Amino acid sequence: MDKASADCPYPGCFFCVMKEGNPSKRRASILKFFRELPSQDDDGQVLPISGLWNTAMAHPNDPEFIELGIFECMSALIWKGLKNRRWLSHDQNIYIPYYAAHIIGSYTMNMEEFAERAVRAGIIPPLVELLRGRLTWVEQRVAVRALGHLATYASTFPAVSSQGEILELSIQLAMSSLEIVYSHFYQYVDRRLSYHCDLLTRGMGGVEMESRKAEEWASQLQCWSLQLINCFSFKPEFLPTICKPEFLTKLPGMWGGLVNENSPAGIGLLRTICHHKLGRGPVAACPGIIEALCNIARSSDDWQYMAIDCILWLLQDPNTSHKVIEKAVPALVDLAEISSLGDHKKLGDSIVNVLQECIESQGTGRTQINSHVKEEVEELLNSKQRLKWEKNMPKEDLHIKQAAALVVKLEGNSLFSSGNISGAAAKYSEALALCPMRSKKERVVLYSNRAQCHLLLQQPLAAIGDATRALSLHNPVNRHAKSHWRRAQAYDMLGLAKESLLDAILFINECSQSNDPDLSLRKNKVPDYAERFVKKQMRAAWLFREAAIKHGGVQCEGDAGDMCGQETDDSEWETASESEIGNEERDEIGDDICGWENEVERKDKYKKASIKEINHGYNVQLTEDV
């Protein structure tokens, strides 16, 4: 540490140590630095710690600092912050426990041998103290992250699980994290701790940026808590603690939000729980959880297959099948023609096989299927038989069936245009019965058209079912814009804001990528009414909404005049007006009924208007399918 340290006013400066050219001297100096840092009370200690934080994020697999005692140093610094509040409040030391826990989490993220070294260094007890909330939610976030990494490895999980309170603390944190961050930070701008603001924005933003980052960190706090619980859920002995009704019923609603969409969150944990026999019983017994699983199974996000797995396992288990079958079967029937989801191949075939087993097992045990559910399954099985028969039919006969289906569909379109919505729906059903099973594109249009009829007839559940069938049939899967839009409106009618929001966003994505000639002429391919609809649903599905309602609400950044968490006049978010549709949404006559405009009025207006009036008010036309 010669020349580099000669001009530095701080003896033993970490940054000077890092410039040392002699490798052996450098290692000896770093080792000394890590040993002595926790016992020092000099100002400016946060600077080398923040430097180590950057290094850990940039090079988490580098063993140098691990071998020289960084875990022991970080553990001692967290203990110092917990035990010595005078030191913690001095200078900028308040940042140090956060950085220390974050460094531990980064270095244990990928390497099991690093995690083993961390456990031997004694880092679990101070992390547990942070998890308890001995400091603030900011430190809880990085503590649960680090413990989650340690719990993923077989060699270090026993050390984590031996701390009995970790699981209970994680469950409580998963349930309360959003309210904690809202009430302790988001709600009152003038009460925000300055070091929280600095950590959230790195000094690069104002109040609006702080609020956005707080929502992201709150979601991470919840999702990382769920990840830690998920590690415990692989062990049967921990399932009784996890499978409490008050926790299970909340899991489907823990979804990470738009700010953390890459996390499987609650549905990922539910899948692990349902994979084990001991977990399926409590899940099946929870009121409302099967409906939530069915909604997720019908969704088009990355975690759709997880909900499908849960439902299939529950149906295959004779101890739970009778509890879930009536609610689960309709959703699975809608999904039975899905080909694959990412790496999950022949998913539709798996669904059909399980449903067939349910029918065959009827009467042999506790599984009893009501007549309506049985008819749905038998209709599905008959359609599969139809597909086999059609493979042996002459092409001429198939062409005749397809032509007949087209004629009936056009009759349905004509009835729809004249305002006979029930008649149109019946014609689309007749066309589906005629249409060859392999004519998937035509069947997509028919299901989507019938979904629109169900919307206008105020039958949102039926609309969701048909839109889901269209999306399952479509190639590529879940990429039919109009079906997303229709299902978004149906979910909105049921008050399911999150599901409606996700479909509306997928609709907008499809619009932005569409080659439709009517859309390509626009400067902005995304219709204005869709943008308004998404804003409305974002407000309703806001991550902090429940907390805001509980604590009295707070003005949302970016939506001036709108109070999140409080009932407001939503006339601003009404569907597209007649004039807008007349000016912007005129489409040529074609196969699919109107889909680019927002055809459905709000629920309260539905009750006051006849079908004919609704059709007139929304200028319903026939339009080429996309």
From TrEMBL:
Biased composition (Acidic residues): 567-591
Region (Disordered): 564-594
Occurrences of domain ARM repeat N-terminal plant (ranges): 7-244
Superkingdom as given in the UniProt entry: Eukaryota
SUPFAM superfamilies recorded: ARM repeat, TPR-like
Pfam families the record matches: ARM_7
InterPro entries, per the entry: ARM-like, ARM-type_fold, ARM_7, TPR-like_helical_dom_sf
Xref: Gene3D superfamilies: Leucine-rich Repeat Variant, Tetratricopeptide repeat domain
Protein name from the UniProt record: ARM repeat N-terminal plant domain-containing protein
Lineage of the organism: Eukaryota, Viridiplantae, Streptophyta, Embryophyta, Tracheophyta
